[in-house]
Write a structure and sequence with these properties.
The protein has 2 helices and 30 strands. It is mainly beta. It has one domain: YVTN repeat-like/Quinoprotein amine dehydrogenase (Methylamine Dehydrogenase, Chain H), CATH 2.130.10.10. Strands 1-30-29-28 form a 4-stranded antiparallel beta sheet, with no helix packed on it. The longest helix is centred in the first third of the chain and has 4 residues. One of its GO terms (cellular component) is nuclear pore. Keywords: Repeat, WD repeat. This is Plant poly(A)+ RNA export protein.
Length: 351
């Protein structure tokens, strides 16, 4: 694996001329999530904070960002999720707890979930009115936020590294390249367990919008496209991305476009790209930023793509230079040509 800073010669944190979010976190950003109902953006970070900005659009390209509110955890925050009505934010991390923050009502955060080790990923499941939390304590827990104890605890074979939910599909990636698939209509039973199609550690997952499969990204600059139905296995494939010659970088984030169902990848090479899995084409490659891109997110209509540019801690504290590692959050306004799928090369007729 490469030492990012010594190989990326581009000193510009914003070569794609994206819109810079005002008053970003003071340490690396660990997750980004837009409200499902509005252009409120939440970021969690290694400075123990959860911050929210209001993103306002005036015309085609005039975008303003205004810090709205923030709350603190006791230790670095690793993950976030919104309630489906857009009123409430959940956040979890190294203090082994999830806080529920009634953001729109201005209420105080309360602890609604606990684990025995840091919480790596969380998901609100509106169809079940439950919060799912995945931890390095090798458990998934489901919580009714009105009750102090989990309604169900599902043991994992290893530490949870990533989780994605598109009801009734839930996919969990753990250490040792395990990928466990659950049908949330029967969450107490594993639907399927597979070994990752990628040879190295899982970093991120994204469920297909049609719930027929998932994307998986690894530390080795590769993405796997995996269908769940045995009859669809011929459609499975992997592809390389976030590589520069012999230098290989982690794929840190996978996001499906909410309208076109194409997807974005973001990597430790400082780039983000847009792809169409159905035609197996890259739609757009963006210029590399001066630091890794550890997380990203589309807003609810896909007109805004948020991404962070900051140190990703993959090289440890000894390679962290506060003088050059200023965290940024940027907003990119995708053109339709960047995110709308294209016909498969060589295909005839309409898709």
């Amino acid at each position: 694996m490469s030492n990012f800073l010594s190989n990326n010669t581009n000193p510009n944190p914003n070569p794609n001329k994206s819109i810079e979010v005002n008053q970003p976190p003071t340490d690396s950003v660990s997750s980004l999530n837009f409200s499902p109902k509005s252009n409120l953006l939440v970021a969690t970070s290694w400075d123990n904070q959860v911050r929210c900005w209001e993103v306002a659009r005036d015309g085609a390209n005039n975008v303003a960002t205004m810090p709205k509110a923030s709350i603190a955890h006791d230790h670095p925050v690793l993950c976030s999720a919104w309630k489906d009505d857009g009123t409430t934010v959940f956040s979890g991390g190294c203090d082994k707890q999830v806080k529920m923050w009634p953001l729109l009502s201005g209420g105080q955060p309360i602890t609604v979930a606990m684990h025995d080790a840091p919480i790596k990923d969380i998901a609100w499941i509106p169809e079940m009115n439950l919060l799912a939390t995945g931890s390095w304590d090798k458990n998934i827990k489901y919580w009714d936020t009105r009750q102090p104890n989990p309604v169900h605890t599902q043991q994992l074979p290893e530490r949870c590294y990533a989780m994605t939910v598109k009801h009734p599909l839930m996919v969990v990636g753990t250490a040792d390249r395990n990928i466990i698939v659950y049908n949330l209509q029967n969450p107490q039973v594993e639907f399927k367990r597979i070994v990752s199609p990628l040879k190295y550690q899982t970093r991120c997952l994204a469920a297909f919008p049609d719930q027929q499969g998932f994307l998986v990204g690894s530390i080795e600059g590769r993405v796997g496209v995996h269908h769940l139905d045995d009859s669809q296995q011929a459609k499975n494939f992997t592809f390389k991305c976030h590589r520069e010659g012999n230098e290989i970088y982690s794929v840190n984030s996978l996001n499906f476009h909410p309208v076109h169902h194409t997807f974005a990848t973001a990597g430790s090479d400082g780039a983000f790209n847009f792809w169409d899995k159905d035609s197996k084409q890259r739609l757009k490659a963006m210029l590399r930023c001066s630091q890794p891109v550890p997380c990203s997110a589309f807003n609810n209509d896909g007109s805004i793509f948020a991404y962070s540019v900051c140190y990703d801690w993959s090289k440890g504290a000894e390679n962290h230079n506060p003088a050059t590692a200023k965290p940024y959050i940027f907003l990119h306004l995708p053109q339709e040509s960047e995110v709308k799928g294209k016909p498969r090369i060589g295909a005839t007729g309409r898709r």
